[in-house]
Amino acid sequence: MASDGAAQTQGQAAAAELAVSRAKAAAAARAEQQKVKQAAAASAPQQSTEPSQAERSRVWAKTGVAVLRDAGLQDLPPTLTEVAGNLHALDCRGNLLASVPHEVASALSKLQRLNLSRNQMQSPGLTALSCLTCLEVLDLNHNRLALLEANNNRIKSVPPAILEGCGRLDLLSLHGNPITLEAFRSTQGFAAYDQRRRAHADKQIDMRIMAPKFDEGADETPWNRWMGAQGQ
C-alpha cells in the first residue's frame, strides 16, 4: 500500500511538472509571437495622418482659403498656382518667405486677403503684389521691409501692426486707394512711422541723393474712381 501511495505521489508530481513546463513553453511562444508582430509593425511603412498636397489643393479650391501657416517655407509650393484663381484668402504667416514670385501673384486674380506676417519679406520681394488688384487686406507685420508700395489698390485702412511692427518701414506709398491722408494720419502707429519717414528723407537730403520731397504716402481725397464707385 505504501509503495502504491508513493507511486501515485510521484505521478502527480510528474504531471504537475509537465503542466508547468507546458505553461512556460506556451508563454515563451506567445512572447516570441509578440516580438515578431512588433518587429513587423516597426518595419512596415508608416501611414501619415497628414493630408497629401493633392488633398490640400482640393480643399483650397473648394473653400477659397489656403493656409500655409508655420510650415518653414522658403518658397511657395508650385501647386498653389493650380488653384490660385479660386482663392480669396491666403495665410502664409510664420515662414521664411523673402518674396512672392510674379507667376504666383499674377495667378491670384481674386485674392482679397493676404497674410505674410512673421516672414523674411524685403521690399524688392513685394514688387509682384501690384498684380493683386482685388487685394483688400495685407498683413506684413514683423518682416524686414524698408519700402512698401501699394498704390492703386482697394486699401481703406492700414493695420496699426504694420506701422508699429515693421520697425524698418520708412516709406509707405498708398496713392490711388480709398484711404485718405487724414485717415492714414489718424492710424495708430503713424507717429512712429512718420518719424522714421522723416529721418529717411533727411538722410537722403544730407547725402544729396535726391531733392527734398514731402510725401506722406496717401492722397488728400479718394481718387475719382473710388468716389464714383461709392455713388453707384
UniProtKB/TrEMBL annotation:
Keyword Repeat (UniProt): yes
Domain of life of the native organism: Eukaryota
Any Gene Ontology CC annotation: axoneme
Location(s), subcellular: Cytoplasm, Cytoskeleton, Cilium axoneme
The keyword Methyltransferase is assigned to this record: no
Membrane-crossing residue ranges in chain numbering: none
Coiled-coil region(s): none
UniProt feature, compositional bias: Low complexity: 27-52
InterPro entries per the UniProt record, alphabetical: Leu-rich_rpt, LRR_dom_sf, SLRP
UniProt cross-references to Pfam families, sorted A to Z: LRR_8
Entry keywords, A to Z: Leucine-rich repeat, Repeat
Protein name: Uncharacterized protein
Species this protein is from: Symbiochloris irregularis
